[in-house]
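Listing S7. Sequence submitted for prediction.
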Amino acid sequence: MILVTGHVILNPEHRERMIALGVEHSARSRGEAGCLAHNCHIDVENPDRLVFVEAWESVEAVRAHFALPASRAFVAEMRALSPQPPTIRIHTAEDVTATLMG
């Protein structure tokens, strides 16, 4: 499984637009092949930070996601609206819940 985490700082002037873009992007992404989860959240410790948490079946699914024109347009618009560049981290992960929790 591939986990993707990211965040973008909300510009107060564009806050509602940026949140709407994040919700729209997450909803669209959940319909893509290989997407296990895709959600955006407001950071409760920093309400000017929009956080993304994604789970994908494979690296290939993530590559296909980032190659889509809609994904590229989303990143470009967020980058243009935010006072700081978005941050993205991509990790491989193994579910060890059963091992740790019994």
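Caption to Listing S7: primary sequence and predicted structure tokens for the chain studied. Helices lie at 15-30, 59-67, 69-81, 97-101. DSSP finds four helices and four strands in the chain.
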